[in-house]
């Protein structure tokens, strides 16, 4: 009886220390499996990027690398599968492009409440991509809700810069 009463706390202690170690583990892009790389942020605060290369057999393979892009508030973060699905993004894409905004279904999913209000990492990334094109994402999302076809037409007709979306828009992410 005494031996089993000692084993219980010991097992609980070991389980809790493994759990705590998992919580405080450092995220290093180069050590991440490729299926967790995209939309991850290293403990250093730099975004992880999926890159392709030819392996020794001459076949296309993938690796996770650290980019130079720093995210200030989400260091050590790996995006959830729920957010990847809600936002309509794909972890297997190599490189992320603002061309995604030209696909109405993508913009609709990115601007949906399940993505826009719950997935700060993905929204921050696309906020910065949009800003690079002269588009203020919150205004694009607002336009997407009220006039989705007009939002796309303005984006297309202006060569990437949507009229009315950039007027004195703040330069930093809303997150």
UniProtKB/TrEMBL annotation:
Pfam families: PAR1 (PF06521). Keywords: Signal. It comes from the Eukaryota. Residues 1-25 form the signal peptide. This is PAR1 protein.
């Amino acid at each position: 009886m005494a031996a089993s009463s000692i084993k219980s706390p010991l097992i609980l202690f070991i389980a809790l220390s493994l759990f705590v170690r998992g919580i405080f583990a450092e995220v290093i892009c180069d050590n991440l499996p490729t299926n967790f790389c995209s939309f991850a942020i290293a403990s250093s605060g730099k975004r992880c990027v999926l890159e392709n290369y030819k392996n020794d057999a001459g076949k296309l393979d993938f690796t996770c690398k650290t980019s130079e892009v720093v995210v200030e508030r989400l260091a050590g973060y790996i995006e959830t599968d729920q957010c990847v699905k809600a936002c309509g993004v794909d972890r297997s894409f190599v490189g992320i492009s603002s061309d995604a905004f030209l696909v109405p279904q993508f913009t609709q999913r990115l601007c949906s409440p399940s993505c826009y209000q719950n997935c700060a990492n993905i929204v921050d990334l696309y906020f910065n991509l949009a800003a690079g094109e002269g588009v203020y994402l919150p205004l694009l999302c607002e336009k997407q809700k009220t006039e989705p076809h007009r939002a796309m037409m303005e984006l297309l007709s202006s060569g990437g810069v949507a009229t009315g979306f950039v007027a004195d828009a703040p330069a930093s992410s809303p997150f």
